[in-house]
Amino acid sequence: MSDYLPISFEDRMGLVEFRVGERAHIGVDGDSCGGCSTKACVVACPANLFVPTSDGGILFNYEQCFECGTCYMVCNTEGAITWTYPDGGHGVVFRRS
Ligand code: SF4
Ligand code: SF4
């Protein structure tokens, strides 16, 4: 039996606050992604921030990032993802409600 409440992705995201910084703390190199056959980041990112495009590329938006590091761990193309934490005072703020 699961201990998790039946809550939708949208409702779950609504429980999280993001203090969005001006600098993108994660960069994705579109040229590297074009040759990637797995697109592992798409299924691995818990915030659904990687979206495959019809031409084989990737759209990425850093603004609702949980800073979990999963995308960096699963990507097997060297240099495709540049990962840093957001600047001080910015980024995800987890809260209970
Ligand atoms: S970020 Fe990595 S896993 Fe995702 S599409 Fe680009 S190369 Fe592939
Ligand atoms: S750090 Fe986590 S939430 Fe942020 S883009 Fe990567 S996988 Fe998604």
Can you characterise this structure?
The structure is a single chain. About 15% of the residues are buried. A two-stranded antiparallel ribbon has the order 1-6. It is about 20% helix and about 20% strand. It has one domain: Alpha-Beta Plaits (2-Layer Sandwich). It is built from four helices and six strands. It is α+β, with helices and mostly antiparallel strands and about 100 residues long. The model has no long low-confidence stretch (mean pLDDT about 90). Strand 3 (about 50) and strand 4 form a beta hairpin. It has helices spanning about 10-15, 30-35, 40-45, 70-75; strands at about 15-20, 25-30, 50, 60, 80-85, 90-95. The protein binds iron/sulfur cluster (2 copies). One iron/sulfur cluster (SF4) binds near residues 38, 41, 80 and 81.
Number of domains: 1
Query: Which stretches are poorly predicted, pLDDT < 50 over at least 5 residues?
Result: none
State the total count of DSSP E strands: 6
Number of helices: 4
Helicity range: 10-25%
Question: Can you tell me the CATH architecture?
Answer: 2-Layer Sandwich
Q: Strand-and-helix sequence, N→C?
A: HEEHHEEHEE
Oligomer: single chain
| Rounded radius of gyration (Å) | 15 Å
Main sheet specs = 2 strands, antiparallel
What form results from the Cα inertia axes?
A: globular
- Mean pLDDT, all residues: 92
Distance between the termini: 23 Å
Assigned CATH class = Alpha Beta
